[in-house]
Amino acid sequence: MICENDVKILREKQDLPDDKLKSLLSTDEFDLVLAKNADEVRRENYGSDVYIRGLIEFTNHCKNNCLYCGVRRGNSDAQRYRLGKSDILACCDEGYALGFRTFVLQGGEDPHYTDEVLCEIVSSIKKKYPDCAVTLSAGERSKESYKKLFEAGADRYLLRHETANVEHYGKLHPAEMSLENRKKCLFELKKIGYQVGSGFMVGSPYQTNDNIVEDLRFLQKLQPDMIGIGPFIRHSKTPLGEFENGSVEMTLRLISILRLMFPKALIPATTALGTLKNDGRELGLKSGANVVMPNLSPVENRRKYEIYENKICLGDEAAQCIECLKSRVKSVGYNIVVDVGNAKTKE
Ligand code: SAH
Question: Which residue's CA is the closest to the ligand 1 atom numbered 8?
């Protein structure tokens, strides 16, 4: 049982001491009080609106070797692909007609996409669709690179910190990667003027509740516009492929806690949630999330962007996907809107 009074204080003060936060995480059952409070706060700020982002997985080449990720360079079974400018623009055309006003270009860290190549893609999208936001999710790059991409028109950048604890970070990543650089990138992105998204996996190998509290504290420091969390899902072709998947209920609990701590944040009900439970995304929305990110990638590439196994919606055309999502979102009392979907923090 959680303490209702703690939820009340968290809602009023958007904060709680570490031990109280930890007690909210001490069981992973779905908690109605927490979800109800989070839903009320989301409705105060966003009504019943749900923002959609069209996800374009533009490359699965990656120079990194993150221990949890199926597209890590060490996975020699992965069939690699890249999308060119015209492929990406075709995804945007399809998405725009379906009501998308944000395109998220996500990919591995692929040196093929130099600043020149990526800036050209971003500016072409912005030229064709000036009423849309372009979000990049392409990993760690230099400050200069982030600046050039921003000047080319990129509006937002997603870069999950993955875990705010150095030791834990070291257990999930190879030695050549560092939490310090990840954090540095996030603060640079913010300073340049991007709307920034961060976040972490829930139930990743070796994660403790103390780690999660550190994640929440880090997010308080960063004050991101968007916070993406999803359960860890094992991928058998990775070094962490034998670990248990993260818990859907713990993820829902954390979505609610995040909504109470960051009332105006954009919080997606992630595909990973929908992968572990058929109505996972609907439950995410009911727990305080206000964004969904359907896949706009060409169907022939979807299966290859396998960061974790058993990902949903692999065979659906974008149009089918959005129809299915619309009815799912409606079934729990919300509505997908045609809107660029900025965070209310920017108003
Ligand atoms: N290369 C980009 C995009 C990574 S994929 C970057 O570094 O930011 C987007 C997110 O998927 C990651 O940030 C990670 O949190 C999540 N992810 C990767 N592997 C996963 C897995 N096995 N289970 C669940 N989420 C995973």
Answer: 139
| Domains of the chain, first to last | 42-341 (3.20.20.70)
Is the separation of the CB atoms in 53 and 100 below 8 Å?
Answer: yes
CA-CA-CA-CA dihedral for 197, 198, 201, 205, to nearest 10: 160
**Residues lining ligand 1, CB < 6 A?**
68-69, 106, 108-109, 137, 139, 159-160, 162, 201, 230, 232-233, 235, 272, 307-308
- How much distance in Å is there from the Cα of 137 to the middle of ligand 1? 10
And the tokens for 339? 């809107």
pLDDT tens for residues 143-171?
A: 999 999 999 999 999 999 999 999 999 99
How many angstroms separate the alpha carbon of residue 235 from the centre of ligand 1?
12
List the beta bridge partners of residue 59.
82, 107
Atom of ligand 1 nearest to the CA of 68: 22
Instruction: Read off the pTM.
Output: 0.98
Q: Residues 263-303: pLDDT tens digits?
A: 999 999 999 999 999 999 999 999 999 999 999 999 999 99
Q: What angle do CA 345, 346, 347 make, to 5 degrees?
A: 95
253 CA → ligand 1 middle, Å? 20
User: What is the Å distance from ligand 1's center to 274 Cα?
Assistant: 15
Q: Are strands 226-231 and 102-107 parallel, antiparallel or unpaired?
A: unpaired
User: Is the separation of the CB atoms in 194 and 146 below 8 Å?
Assistant: yes
